[in-house]
Amino acid sequence: MDAPNERDAVLQAHAQNHAIAALLAVKPACIVNARFDCGELTLWIARDDIRPVCRTLQKAGYNFLVDVTCVDWYPSEPRFQVTYHLLSHSLKQRLRLCVMVDSLDTEVASITPEWPSANFYEREVWDLFGVRFGGHPNLRRIMLPDEWEGHPLRKDYPVEGYR
């Protein structure tokens, strides 16, 4: 991650952004890091704060969850980066939220109560990466057979599968 002074510089430079203004008004500490690059704003959010952050951003005008995906940074820790892409039609702004998850505690709160469309995205991330979404209404495999062992998009997953 970048140095905290970069976070503060980005937050200060883009304080007029609806997402940043809303989050700073409610809980400034929820933003772990921030980057504005190539015209896109990315906010790293504390893992325990993802649901309240999503509720706050909905109230701030971000009305559409585009997708949820994951990156495995193995062997680095925290290992997984769960990424949420949000869109505000009225503001004509996109926003990327990232939550870092450790390899030993792979659970992050489900955002399906805020965005029901997160259901299949979270199931896909769990199926392929093994990141659990606490409070998900139906967390089960979506792409692979129920008897499949492991999570094939993890970087330490054997190329030919488990034998």
Q: Which secondary structure elements does this structure contain, and how are they paired or packed?
A:
Elements: H1 4-13, H2 18-26, E1 31-37, E2 40-45, H3 50-59, E3 64-72, E4 80-88, E5 93-101, E6 107-109, H4 118-129, E7 132-134
Structure description:
By secondary structure, this protein is of the alpha/beta class. It contains four helices and seven strands. The strands form two sheets. A five-stranded mixed β-sheet has the order 1-2-5-4-3. It has a two-stranded parallel ribbon with strand order 6-7. Strand 6, helix 4 (118-129) and strand 7 form a beta-alpha-beta unit. The longest helix has 12 residues, at 118-129.
Which key phrases capture this entry?
163 residues; Beta Polymerase, domain 2; 5-stranded mixed β-sheet; two-stranded parallel ribbon
Low confidence ranges: none
Instruction: Note the beta-strand portion.
Output: 25-35%
Q: In what order do the strands lie side by side in the largest sheet? A: 1-2-5-4-3
Helix content: 25-40%
> Order of SSEs, N→C?
HHEEHEEEEHE
**Coarse shape:** globular
Regarding CATH, which class of the domain at 4-105?
Alpha Beta
Largest sheet: 5 strands, mixed
Number of strands: 7
Assign the CATH superfamily of the domain at 4-105: NADH:ubiquinone oxidoreductase Nqo5 subunit
For the terminal residues, how far apart are their CA atoms?
Answer: 37 Å
CATH architecture of the domain at 4-105: 2-Layer Sandwich
Oligomeric status of the shown chains? single chain
Could you please say which CATH topology of the domain at 4-105 applies here?
Answer: Beta Polymerase, domain 2
- The Cα radius of gyration reads 16 Å
Number of alpha- plus pi-helical segments = 4
The overall pLDDT average reads 93
Class of secondary structure makeup = alpha/beta
